Amino acid sequence: MTDISRRTLIQAAAVAAPLALSPQMLSAAGKPALRAAMLLDPAIRYFNAANIAPTFRSVAAIHEQETRAFQMDPSVERRALYPKVADALRARIAVRLKVTAQEIALVRNASEANTVAVRGLALKRGDRIILTDHNHPSTWDSWKLRAEREGLDLHVVPVPVDAESPQTLLDGIAAAITPNTKAIFLSHMSNITGIIYPVAEIAKLAQAKNIWLHADGAQTFGWMQLDLPALGVDSYSGSTHKWLMGPLEGGILYVKRARQAELQPIMMSHGYWLTDPANLETAQKYEISGQRDDPKLMAIAATLDVLDGVGGDAVIEPAVRQRAAAMRQAIAGVAGARVIGSGAAAITGPVITVAFPGRDVPAMRAKLWQGKIATAASKLEGGAIRFSPHIYNSDDDVAAVIEGLRAG
């Protein structure tokens, strides 16, 4: 591989310079300085991090700058920079998740990561796969297709949305396990109600019976402190465009080193980000999909710079939990509102879904948007509104929501 010039490395370091934020800019109330660091229109009160979160000005600027540099010089010689950037990024993400860089693949989003896990396992007719009815379509629909083609036993466990304890969730999964069970695929946190599965306890059941356990972390990666070895998962997915507040079409797939031989990649192509062919014996084999948006590597690194600048997940998680709990309580006090789920702290995250029996919920949501309050629609109970607050939401944002719900 061609050596990278010192000048190129200096330029790359300048591109990835961190945004100067301090921990004081972050609190459960959401500080104006942090919000001002984002590209988000100041007129919009944004409550849809579970879908797409806005990113930071520095991240967008670095992505744009590096994209221009790429297009000005797309030579093989300059592109030799990117495999080294990818190596550094895998290592950095691995530290956040308390795993090794050899267990991290850089993919396009959690959906791609989930699909690799679905398609890569060797199974036979009659094998049981356990899902829940809150699984994302990237696992639900992918498993349904594979089950129909291969005669697999796809068993769907209903999520007890009003559960008060982790034990209730654990019992539902345990009851579905049979001698033929080969894999359990869960959403770590449901994007439907915010319910969080006790993955570590489920992992103990799975490990005792050699069952593959995959956690879809699209709704936890970016705000929750994660220790994947402690969770006990065999594979885990995440996206950069949700709670991480990074660029679009970025994601990660973790696969436990000891079990990588059991999970095959779903595509073989040239390994653009390989620095050593031996790395095809690591999780890098799952990220090969042809030419990628190489400048996005810089943008993801810049996102991590911002988050590290405010204290990382150790600061972000309690802030997010506090913001969500306070908002859940405030919404529950609105006349006619029914917040779906128990709200028990041990199993509830920053997704709040609320129904208004007897009211025109689509019209209510439309009225919120007229006031520039961005939410998501839910099909639960014939129609509900989903809020997913994050660290950039302020007390004023929440007050505007409560006023809008009362007026709607």
Q: Please, could you describe this protein's structure?
A:
- This protein has 408 residues and is an alpha/beta fold.
- The protein folds into two domains: 85-307, Aspartate Aminotransferase, domain 2 (3-Layer(aba) Sandwich), CATH 3.40.640; 313-407, Aspartate Aminotransferase, domain 1.
- It has helices spanning 6-15, 32-36, 57-72, 76-79, 81-97, 110-120, 137-150, 166-176, 199-208, 228-231, 296-309, 313-332, 361-370, 395-407; strands at residues 45-46, 104-107, 128-132, 153-157, 181-187, 212-216, 235-239, 251-255, 338-339, 352-355, 373-374, 376-378, 384-387.
- The strands form three sheets. It has a seven-stranded mixed beta sheet, with helices on both faces.
- This is Aminotransferase class V-fold PLP-dependent enzyme.
- It comes from Sphingobium psychrophilum.
- One of its GO terms (molecular function) is transaminase activity.
